[in-house]
Amino acid sequence: MSTNGLVVAIVGATGAVGEEMRAVLAERRFPVSRLVPLASERSAGQTVEWRGEDCLVQVLNEDSFHEVDIALFSAGGSISEKFAPIAADCGCYVVDNSSAFRMMPEIPLVVPEVNPGALEQESMIIANPNCSTIQEVVALQPLHAVAGLKRVVASTYQSASGAGRNGMDELRDQTIDLLNFREPKNNTFSRRLAFDTIPQIDVFQDDGFTKEEHKMMFETRKIMELPDLPVCATCVRVPVFLGHAMSINAEFERPISVEDAMSALENAPGVILHRDPADFPVAADAQGADDVHIGRLRVDPSAPNALTFWVVADNLRKGAATNAVQIAELLKAAGHLDG
Amino acid sequence: MSTNGLVVAIVGATGAVGEEMRAVLAERRFPVSRLVPLASERSAGQTVEWRGEDCLVQVLNEDSFHEVDIALFSAGGSISEKFAPIAADCGCYVVDNSSAFRMMPEIPLVVPEVNPGALEQESMIIANPNCSTIQEVVALQPLHAVAGLKRVVASTYQSASGAGRNGMDELRDQTIDLLNFREPKNNTFSRRLAFDTIPQIDVFQDDGFTKEEHKMMFETRKIMELPDLPVCATCVRVPVFLGHAMSINAEFERPISVEDAMSALENAPGVILHRDPADFPVAADAQGADDVHIGRLRVDPSAPNALTFWVVADNLRKGAATNAVQIAELLKAAGHLDG
């Protein structure tokens, strides 16, 4: 770290999450002395905006990290698998938004509101969890602290932006095609998303779940440090541009009243509770901000000690960029970036 | 009944469900000697198509049912409350698509694939269940027969057409407004539906559930004749024009394998099973037909003897019009309409 701050790289700087990472670093006044936007050959020559100036995107290569203090990766699993260890070997901290390292026991998987202590496990690579998982555990942790979590069933309503810019473009193009009586095309999604829902996110696994559902099920256990927690997820893409929602049914070991649950959530970091049922949050409420919105909290009468509720967050912000920058802030606060 | 067939009235003939009722009566060759399309003053003078000819819509009044053998109602609860008893007093059978009579003990609430025997309870008024409930119980009944249903958790993805033509028009208008940088208006839905999801269908109840969610919870128990069955529903409107989907987690009393569940569903009436996970059904697959599509069936590992799956159907057809006509067919087969 120079006296002026940190050299921060963004790998995947031209992507949807990369763009949010720049915005969040600036908004939260992370002490950046120099931003190093990195991307593939395809983006060579592009510029990205940083503090009001154009900043030339550099092509990612094995020499990219020599002067970098911390790199935020969001360029897909194979890029992370190859370049995160290279960066770490250069003494550069990595906060990785891909799923490549998340489930490795030696890699911390961190949501700062939930398990900041996981960073005590020394590692140059820290994994940023799956977008849906992040907002889920931010909602579950305060309730778990009150009553002990016993089982979670989640069904999601995930936006096109979870598939990046291509996903948002495809939703827009398909919508315009349909409204103009043209046959819509699909490349990013396995079926037409415009005016339909798709119960598939990421690839199918042998047990019939998708990889996205496995992420929610397994990452939840690791982040909450409940290795045996029963979790079942159904992940569904909906024709929304930005913002993920989910319906959660949670069972607890001990009784928990709606009022106790609401109090716990109101006092929880990163949460905005919508007490009035009719004031439920929607994706439009969450877009562009860092909060996890929780509404429609009620007793689930179908099981003992059960609650059901609705959770919404900006998947590119708290579900990705904001959480990554928060991890960087924790590393800095712990003195890891002081060189 | 004349020798040429039955006089059939449709109350709400100009609505979205009324239109499907005409189509389904014709497709299924229900023996109609004369169709009597009834609607409010607002639709006076309109015509609807019946067997290739224009048929003048009549204004609904207390004298509308004197020559009618059976009336299919889909004009909202207050119209049903007022006119269904009047029709019944005239000796006209009523199949009512509103929620007005569904939970009355003396009124049969019927899904022909599930509880045709409920029609043995003599009643001139038969209630047609809630759209989401119908497709849910068609999927659950074959599994219940194998393993004994113990608990159901459902989260729905319901289309704009559940709110009738106004709902579909509002989704279209809002979508066009947004794509043209105009501020969208909302009247039918409580929030903007275009490119967002709304976790509210019908009005809120004291316990924090919506009335739509109560319908799913209470009607499921009545139809399946399981008065104590624990059910929890979260009903969500999604920006889809036609076709409701739902994610169901079901727990059973006894073990049930995926193969046993699939066999039961493949042999069940009204069901199309999608065995391959990647061949999941979407709303586009269900539109315009009468089948309940089930896919993504897999073990729910978060509870003993549990399964989770995805159910899609055309809410205006099997969720409303088709189920009503099927009830009329059962009444006819039982000799009730031979007058």
Textual characterization of the structure:
Two copies of one chain form a homodimer. Chain A has 339 residues and is an alpha/beta fold. The first copy, chain A, folds into two domains: 6-128 and 320-333, Rossmann fold; 133-315, Dihydrodipicolinate Reductase, domain 2 (2-Layer Sandwich), CATH 3.30.360. The first copy, chain A, is built from eight helices and 14 strands. Chain A has helices at residues 16-27, 77-89, 131-147, 164-179, 211-224, 258-266, 283-286, 317-333, and strands at 6-11, 32-39, 47-50, 53-56, 58-59, 70-73, 93-96, 125-127, 149-157, 231-234, 244-252, 271-273, 292-299, 306-313. In chain A, the strands form three sheets. Chain A has a six-stranded parallel beta sheet, sandwiched between helices. In chain A, strand 13 and strand 14 (306-313) form a beta hairpin. In chain A, helix 3 (131-147) packs parallel to helix 5 and helix 3 crosses helix 6. The longest helix of chain A is centred in the middle third of the chain and has 17 residues, at 131-147. Chain A is globular, with a radius of gyration of 20 Å. The model of chain A has no long low-confidence stretch (mean pLDDT 96). At the A-B interface, strand 9, helix 4, strand 10, strand 11 and strand 13 of A face strand 9, helix 4, strand 10, strand 11 and strand 13 of B.
